[in-house]
Amino acid sequence: MTLKTVNGTQLRDTVGSFPSGVTVVTTTDGEVDHGLTVSAFVSLSLEPAMVLVSIDKKSSVVPFLEQGSPVAVSVLSEEQSDLAITFGRHLENKFDGVSIKRSTNRAAVLEGASAWLSGAVVDKYPGGDHFIITIAVEECAHDEEQKPLLYHRGRLFQWQED
């Protein structure tokens, strides 16, 4: 099938007009923690409880996100823009100096997040230059006091109330 396409810049600029939250997705291989910043995160199903994330196929974290892999998603709070930047970079150890707690599945949850979920990878589907990762949620919690960090048109923003 041949699709009429727009270029990546056009799509990024257009889709970037839709504000989103900012998450850090983490997993562990049992010895080392792996993580990256992800804004493509969405609730998928309530019964069973599932979410999905979309991750660039070139990400160094992709090989650790196979079926059954433990995973956690930390929804960053407005005070955590530095973590969004850190986990968005190609650094040797992104977890240096980062306060974490462990979910039941041992995946790292970032302390101070406005919400978090953990579970296991169900499936990994190819989707263009990304993988769509579905996650069965086994635990989740949120902090009513923490306001989320927002991402819009390539920039990070703090929550604004009227």
TrEMBL record:
Organism domain of life: Bacteria
Biological processes, Gene Ontology terms: pyrimidine nucleobase catabolic process
Domain Flavin reductase like: 15-158
Keywords assigned by UniProt, alphabetized: Oxidoreductase
InterPro entries referenced in this protein's UniProt entry, alphabetically: Flavin_Rdtase-like_dom, NADH-dep_flavin_reductase, Split_barrel_FMN-bd
GO molecular function annotations of the record: FMN binding; riboflavin reductase (NADPH) activity
Record-annotated membrane-spanning stretches: none
Record-linked Pfam families: Flavin_Reduct (PF01613)
Protein family (similarity comment): Belongs to the non-flavoprotein flavin reductase family.
The protein's name in its UniProt record: Flavin reductase like domain-containing protein
